[in-house]
Amino acid sequence: MKKTINVSNQGATLDTGRRNFLKLSGVGLAMAGLALVGCDDNDDFQIIDNNVFDLGSGDVGILNYAYALEQLEADFYTKVVNNFYTGISSAEKEVFTDLYHHEVIHRDFFKAAISGATSNILPTLEFQYPNVNFNDRNSVLATAKALEDTGVAAYNGAGKYITNPTYLVIAGKIVSVEARHASAIRNLINPGSADFSGDDVIDANGLDVAKEPKDVVTAAGGFFKTPFTWKERGIN
Q1: What is the mean pLDDT of residues 140-159?
Q2: Residue of 89, 75, 83, 85 lying closest to 9 (CA atoms)
Q3: Is the pTM of this model over 0.70?
Q4: Is there a smaller number of Cβ atoms within 10 Å at the N or the C end of the chain?
């Protein structure tokens, strides 16, 4: 599966000279530790056929699940920064470029970490955006909002299924960055409003919404050219 990416993903790093709240902290340094822990290769991962991939179960399944979502976010922001929408401001370009860098780092982090621990790694996936107009600000921001909110809810919902404490720490570090992304996008949509933590993503107890993997896959499934699933063993 090949796709054209005009912005190089090689050596993608954060601009540490910028003083903004989107900085990624600690994830890269933790990568080696995650890769050394290892996974159980007998986690029921399989390619069902050429079009549907089983993510596996247990920790391997959760890591591949996160990897699939990070592939989607990285692909989306790659398209955004390769062809910024008409009338975009310099401040918005900076935000989207930061988000692009973060998601590429997250994607490559999961690929390297899972590859270092098991052979049961999800392949590179392909995506589609039938309802997204990348030349329209409202369409891009609405899609970014949906992806970021879903990403936060996905990590929150999957956390309870992770049995390895090292993986859980890493997931906590990444979901905090995803939440910053979600707030940044919401602020672009409604500058200066309280919508950065709206009632649609924060429950009555002041906690972020958590979604089960099956619900996230259903919500995001339209973006995937290659569907994926897993055997339900401790994950539903």
Answers
A1: 93
A2: 75
A3: yes
A4: N
